[in-house]
C-alpha cells in the first residue's frame, strides 16, 4: 500500500487573551491510500483541528506552529495558498458536521455540487450534473433525478448529509475528512448515512479520516483508530485490537462508560397514587395537533424515560406538564389532584413540586449571576429563606451536587465546565425542594465520561431524596442505564410503554425494535451484519416510512 | 400615508406667520390680510382645511399654489396648480438621483466587496478612511471642493447646473455631473461599509468554510457564497440612501443652482406657500415608503427560503 498522508510532530496553537496557547502538542499520523482512520476523543481533544490541519487549513485565530503535513509528497504547511486551493476539493474533500449549516442557503444543491468539478476543470457542468445524480442514486437519496434541484432548506438533515458526501465525491478525491457527520442526526437517520458513506468510500477506494466522539460509530467505519486527549495522542491500533484490548487507562475508561447500569426499582403497588399522571393529553401548536392522546404515570422514586426521535413530541409533553403549553384536551394530575392547565393559574406550591433541568446548561444559566445567586433565587422564592439561612441552604445544595461551596459560590457560569454547569442546573431544580423533576436531554451536550457522572449524581439524589424523574432523551444507552420505565413516542403518539426490562427484551413494537436495532454497537461487524440481515432498504428512515 | 399626511398638515400649519402677511410685507393692513386669508380659505378652521386638502390629494389634485395666484383675478386663468409647478422639478430631482445611483451603488458594492476581500489591508483602510471622511464633511464643503478641482482648476464640468426643459440628454448629464458626484461621495460610505460588514459577518459561517475547503478562489467565495446571503441588509441600506437622494438634496441643489424639488421646497417655505410645501412633504414621504417597500420585496426575492417554501 502506498502512503497518502503523513503528519509528523504537528503542533497547533490557538489565540486567546492575546497569547498563543497549545491545542495540539505534536501528533503524528499516517494514512495509506484507501484506508480509513478513526479519530476519537472528547470535546477539546483537538480532533477537528487535526482534521482541518490535514487539509492544510486552520480556522481564524489558530495556527500550525510546528511539524509537517505531507499529502502525496506536498508539504501543506509550507505550500502556497494557490497550491492548496488546487488540491482542496479536488484531491482532498471535507464533509462537515452540520450539513444544514454547511450548504449555502442561497444556491441549489446541484449548483454547489458541480462547483468543485467545474472550478477545478475536472468536468464540465452538464457532465458533473449527470455524475451528481448518479452519486445521489448510489447514496440512495429519494428522487435522485430531482433532489439536487432543491434548495438546502427543502431537504431533510440526513439527506443533506448524504448530499454533502456526494459533493465531497464530486471530484473523486483521494482523501475525505468526515468531521462528525452523523452526530446531529437521529439514530434511524444515522444508520442510513453510515451505511451510505461506508459503501461509497469502499466503492471508490477513497482514504478517509473519520472524526467522531462515538466509539460504536467509529468501530463500523474505520480500519484503525487513534484516541486523542487534550491535544495528545493516547494510543493507536487497528479497530479490532483497539476494541478488544485497549492498552491505556484513558481508553479503557471511555470503553467502560457504557457499563453504568442502575438496577430497576421494584414496581409500585397496583393501588399506589402516581406522583404525576398524564391523562389523555392532546396538544396543538396553532391549529396543528402535535400530541395525540398521550397518557402515562410516574410513580414516587421512579424514573420514566420518554424516548423518541426529534419531532416525536417528547419536549412538548414536558411543556404540557409544566403548564407552559396548556393541552387542548386531557389533564395533568399531581398526587391524584388535577392541576390547572395554565401555569399562571397554579399555586406557588404546585409550581414548586415540578422542576425542570435543561439540555443546554450554557444558555439556561444567567451568565451575569454568580452560582450562589442562581441557586439562591429559587431558595428565596419558594422557601422564603433570606440572609444567612439562604446562604446555608445554597451551601447544602452545592454539597449535594458535589461542588465545594467555598470555591464555587462566587463564580460565574462562564468559569465552569459543561458538566459543572449542568450540576448547577440540577441544584437550581433541587432548591425548590420538588418531588418531581423533568430532565430534558440533560446529558446530550456532554462528553460521555461527564455525562456518566451526571447520571450517577441523579441516581444518588433519587435514592436520598425520593425524587421522581421524567427523563427525556433520544439516547437509548442513557435509557438503559437509568430508567425504570420507558415510554416510546413517535409522531406525537405513545407507541409502546412498560418497565425497562420488558422494553429491552423482545418482542417489541415494530418501531421500538427499529430504534433499538439502529443504535450502533461496539462490535465492528454490527453494521455489516445488520445490513445482511435486514437488507439495505429496510434500515433507518426508509424502514420508518414503511410503517 | 394617512398618518403621515396628518403629521405633515399639522406641522406645516404650525409654522409661524402666514402667506398673507408674508406677501403683503410691510404694507399689510389688517383688512387686506383678512381679505387674502378669506380668498385662500385660510380663515377656515384647521380640520375643515385638512379634509379639503385630503380630498384633493386623493383625487390627485394637489391644489393651487398661493404664490402664482393672480389676486386681481382670483381663480382665473393666471393660476398655476401645485402639480404643474412640482412636476418638472420632481423629474429633475429624479434625474439627478438616478445618475447618482448609477454611479454610487455599483461603486459602493464593489468597494465593499473588495474591502471585505482584502480586509485589514492598506486598501481596506484607505477605502474606509476615504468614505468616512467624505461622509463626515458637510455636503456644501464637498461640493465646493469638487467645484474647485473639477470646474475651476481643471474645467471638466460646469459648476452651475442650471438645466432646463428641452436640453439634450448629454448636456443635461454633463451639467448634473458635479452635483451627482457630490452626492455619490455622501452616500457611498454607508452602502460600502454595510456591504463590507454584511459580508464579513458571514465569513465565519460553516458554508463559507466549506466553500474555502472546496478550493475556491477568495473572490469566488465572497461573490458567489457570501454576497447572495448578505443581500438583505445591503438592499435595505441602498434603499435608505436612494430615499435620501430624493429628499435630502436641498443643500447640494442650492450650491449648484440645480432646479430640483429641494430648492422649490425651500423657496415655498420661505414665502409660506403652504400647498406646495405640503405636496413636497407628501412626495418625500411617499418616496421613503415606496423605496423601503421595494427593499423589503427585494429582500424576500433574494432569499430562497422565502421564495421556495418547503
UniProtKB/TrEMBL annotation, chain A:
Q: What is its EC number?
A: 3.6.3.-
Q: Which GO terms describe its biological process?
A: peptide transport
Keyword set, alphabetical order: ATP-binding, Cell inner membrane, Cell membrane, Hydrolase, Membrane, Nucleotide-binding, Translocase, Transport
Entry's PROSITE patterns? ABC_TRANSPORTER_1, ABC_TRANSPORTER_2
In Swiss-Prot or TrEMBL terms, this protein is called Glutathione import ATP-binding protein GsiA
List each copy of the ABC transporter domain by range.
7-255, 276-516
Q: Which SMART domains match?
A: AAA
Q: Which family does it belong to?
A: Belongs to the ABC transporter superfamily.
| CDD domains in the record | ABC_NikE_OppD_transporters
Q: Which Gene Ontology molecular function entries are recorded, alphabetically?
A: ATP binding; ATP hydrolysis activity
Q: State the annotated membrane topology for this chain.
A: Peripheral membrane protein
Note the Pfam families from the entry. ABC_tran (PF00005), oligo_HPY (PF08352)
Its cellular-component GO annotations read: plasma membrane
Instruction: Classify the source by domain of life.
Output: Bacteria
List the Gene3D superfamilies hit by this protein, alphabetically.
P-loop containing nucleotide triphosphate hydrolases (3.40.50.300)
**Organism of this sequence:** Pseudooctadecabacter jejudonensis
Give compartment(s). Answer: Cell inner membrane
From TrEMBL, chain B:
Output the lineage of the source organism: Bacteria, Pseudomonadati, Pseudomonadota, Alphaproteobacteria, Rhodobacterales
Q: Respond yes or no to whether keyword Flavoprotein is given for this record.
A: no
Q: Which organism is it from?
A: Pseudooctadecabacter jejudonensis
Q: Which residues cross the membrane?
A: 94-118, 139-157, 230-256, 276-301
> Which of UniProt's keywords are assigned here?
Cell membrane, Membrane, Transmembrane, Transmembrane helix, Transport
Say which domain of life the source belongs to: Bacteria
User: Among the entry's GO cellular component annotations, what is one?
Assistant: plasma membrane
Q: What protein name is recorded for this chain?
A: Glutathione transport system permease protein GsiC
The record ties this protein, via SUPFAM superfamilies, to: MetI-like
Question: What kind of membrane protein is this, topologically?
Answer: Multi-pass membrane protein
Q: Which residues form the ABC transmembrane type-1 domain?
A: 90-295
> Which molecular function term from Gene Ontology is one that the record holds?
dipeptide transmembrane transporter activity
The record's PANTHER family line, in alphabetical order, gives: DIPEPTIDE TRANSPORT SYSTEM PERMEASE PROTEIN DPPB-RELATED
- Its family? Belongs to the binding-protein-dependent transport system permease family.
Compartment(s): Cell membrane
Q: Which Gene3D superfamilies match?
A: MetI-like (1.10.3720.10)
Amino acid at each position: 500500500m502506498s502512503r497518502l498522508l503523513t503528519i509528523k510532530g504537528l503542533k497547533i496553537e490557538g489565540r486567546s487573551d492575546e497569547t498563543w496557547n497549545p491545542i495540539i502538542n505534536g501528533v503524528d499520523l499516517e494514512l495509506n491510500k484507501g484506508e480509513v482512520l478513526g479519530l476519537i476523543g472528547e470535546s477539546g481533544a483537538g480532533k477537528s483541528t487535526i482534521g482541518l490541519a490535514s487539509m492544510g487549513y486552520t480556522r481564524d485565530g489558530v495556527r500550525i506552529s510546528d511539524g509537517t503535513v505531507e499529502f502525496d509528497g506536498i508539504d501543506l504547511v509550507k505550500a502556497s495558498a494557490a497550491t492548496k486551493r488546487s488540491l482542496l476539493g479536488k484531491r482532498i474533500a471535507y464533509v462537515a458536521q452540520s450539513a444544514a449549516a454547511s450548504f449555502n442557503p442561497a444556491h441549489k444543491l446541484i449548483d454547489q455540487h458541480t462547483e468543485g468539478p467545474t472550478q477545478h476543470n475536472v468536468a464540465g457542468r452538464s457532465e458533473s450534473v449527470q455524475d451528481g445524480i448518479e452519486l445521489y442514486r448510489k447514496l440512495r437519496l429519494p428522487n435522485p433525478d430531482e433532489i439536487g434541484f432543491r434548495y438546502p432548506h427543502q431537504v431533510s438533515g440526513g439527506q443533506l448529509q448524504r448530499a454533502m458526501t456526494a459533493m465531497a465525491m464530486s471530484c473523486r478525491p483521494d482523501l475525505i475528512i468526515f468531521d462528525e457527520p452523523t452526530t446531529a442526526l437521529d439514530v434511524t437517520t444515522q444508520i442510513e448515512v453510515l451505511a451510505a458513506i461506508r459503501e461509497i468510500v469502499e466503492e471508490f477506494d477513497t482514504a478517509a479520516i473519520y472524526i467522531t466522539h462515538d466509539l460504536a460509530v467509529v468501530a463500523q467505519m474505520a480500519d484503525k483508530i487513534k484516541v486523542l486527549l487534550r491535544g495528545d495522542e493516547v494510543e493507536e491500533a487497528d479497530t479490532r485490537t483497539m476494541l478488544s484490548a485497549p492498552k491505556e487507562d484513558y481508553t479503557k475508561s471511555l470503553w467502560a462508560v457504557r457499563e453504568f447500569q442502575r438496577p430497576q426499582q421494584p414496581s409500585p403497588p397496583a393501588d399506589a397514587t402516581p406522583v404525576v399522571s398524564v391523562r389523555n393529553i392532546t396538544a396543538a401548536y396553532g391549529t396543528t395537533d402535535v400530541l395525540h392522546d398521550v397518557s402515562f404515570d410516574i410513580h414516587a422514586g421512579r424514573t420514566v424515560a420518554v424516548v423518541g426521535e426529534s419531532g416525536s413530541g417528547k419536549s412538548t409533553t414536558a411543556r404540557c406538564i409544566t403548564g407552559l403549553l396548556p393541552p387542548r384536551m386531557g389533564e395533568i394530575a399531581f398526587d391524584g389532584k388535577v392541576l390547572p392547565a395554565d401555569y399562571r393559574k397554579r399555586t406557588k406550591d404546585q409550581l414548586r413540586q415540578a422542576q425542570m433541568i435543561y439540555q443546554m446548561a450554557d444558555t439556561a444559566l444567567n451568565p451575569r449571576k454568580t452560582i450562589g445567586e442562581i441557586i439562591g433565587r429559587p431558595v428565596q422564592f419558594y422557601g422564603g429563606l433570606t440572609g444567612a439561612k439562604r446562604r446555608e441552604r445554597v451551601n447544602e445544595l452545592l454539597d449535594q451536587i458535589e461542588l465545594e461551596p467555598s470555591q464555587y459560590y462566587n463564580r460565574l457560569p462562564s468559569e465552569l465546565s459543561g458538566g459543572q454547569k449542568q450540576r448547577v442546573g440540577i441544584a437550581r431544580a433541587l432548591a425548590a425542594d420538588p418531588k418531581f423533576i423533568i430532565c430534558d436531554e440533560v446529558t446530550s451536550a456532554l462528553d460521555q465520561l461527564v455525562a456518566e457522572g451526571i447520571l450517577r449524581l441523579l441516581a444518588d439524589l433519587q435514592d436520598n431524596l425520593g425524587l421522581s424523574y421524567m427523563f427525556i432523551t433520544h439516547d437509548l444507552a442513557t435509557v438503559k442505564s437509568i430508567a425504570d420505565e420507558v415510554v416510546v413516542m413517535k409522531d406525537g403518539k405513545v407507541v409502546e410503554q412498560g418497565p425497562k426490562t420488558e422494553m429491552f427484551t423482545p418482542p417489541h413494537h415494530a418501531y421500538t425494535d427499529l430504534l433499538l436495532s439502529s443504535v450502533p454497537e461496539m462490535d465492528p461487524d454490527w453494521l455489516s451484519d445488520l445490513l445482511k440481515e435486514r437488507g439495505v432498504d429496510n434500515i433507518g428512515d426508509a424502514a420508518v416510512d414503511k410503517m | 400615508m394617512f398618518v403621515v399626511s396628518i403629521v405633515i398638515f399639522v406641522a406645516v400649519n404650525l409654522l409661524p406667520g402666514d402667506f398673507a402677511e408674508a406677501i403683503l410685507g410691510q404694507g399689510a393692513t389688517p383688512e387686506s390680510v383678512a381679505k387674502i386669508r378669506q380668498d385662500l380659505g385660510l380663515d377656515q378652521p384647521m380640520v375643515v382645511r385638512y379634509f379639503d386638502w385630503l380630498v384633493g390629494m386623493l383625487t390627485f389634485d394637489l391644489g393651487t399654489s398661493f404664490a402664482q395666484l393672480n389676486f386681481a383675478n382670483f381663480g382665473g386663468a393666471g393660476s398655476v396648480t401645485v402639480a404643474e409647478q412640482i412636476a418638472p422639478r420632481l423629474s429633475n430631482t429624479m434625474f439627478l438621483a438616478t445618475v447618482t445611483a448609477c454611479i454610487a451603488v455599483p461603486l459602493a458594492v464593489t468597494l465593499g466587496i473588495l474591502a471585505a476581500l482584502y480586509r485589514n489591508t492598506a486598501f481596506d483602510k484607505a477605502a474606509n478612511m476615504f468614505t468616512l471622511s467624505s461622509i463626515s464633511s458637510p455636503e456644501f464643503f464637498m461640493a465646493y471642493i469638487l467645484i474647485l478641482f473639477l470646474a475651476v482648476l481643471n474645467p471638466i464640468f460646469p459648476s452651475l447646473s442650471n438645466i432646463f426643459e428641452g436640453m439634450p440628454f448629454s448636456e443635461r448629464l454633463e451639467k448634473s455631473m458635479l452635483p451627482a458626484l457630490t452626492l455619490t461621495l455622501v452616500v457611498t460610505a454607508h452602502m460600502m461599509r454595510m456591504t463590507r460588514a454584511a459580508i464579513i459577518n458571514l465569513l465565519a459561517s460553516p458554508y463559507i468554510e466549506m466553500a474555502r475547503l472546496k478550493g475556491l478562489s477568495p473572490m469566488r467565495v465572497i461573490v458567489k457564497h457570501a454576497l447572495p446571503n448578505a443581500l438583505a441588509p445591503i438592499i435595505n441600506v441602498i434603499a435608505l440612501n436612494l430615499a435620501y437622494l430624493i429628499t435630502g438634496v436641498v443643500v447640494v441643489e442650492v450650491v449648484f443652482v440645480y432646479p430640483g424639488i429641494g430648492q422649490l421646497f425651500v423657496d415655498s417655505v420661505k414665502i409660506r406657500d403652504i400647498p406646495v410645501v405640503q405636496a413636497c412633504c407628501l412626495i418625500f414621504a411617499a418616496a421613503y415608503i415606496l423605496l423601503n417597500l421595494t427593499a423589503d420585496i427585494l429582500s424576500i426575492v433574494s432569499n430562497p427560503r422565502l421564495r421556495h417554501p418547503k
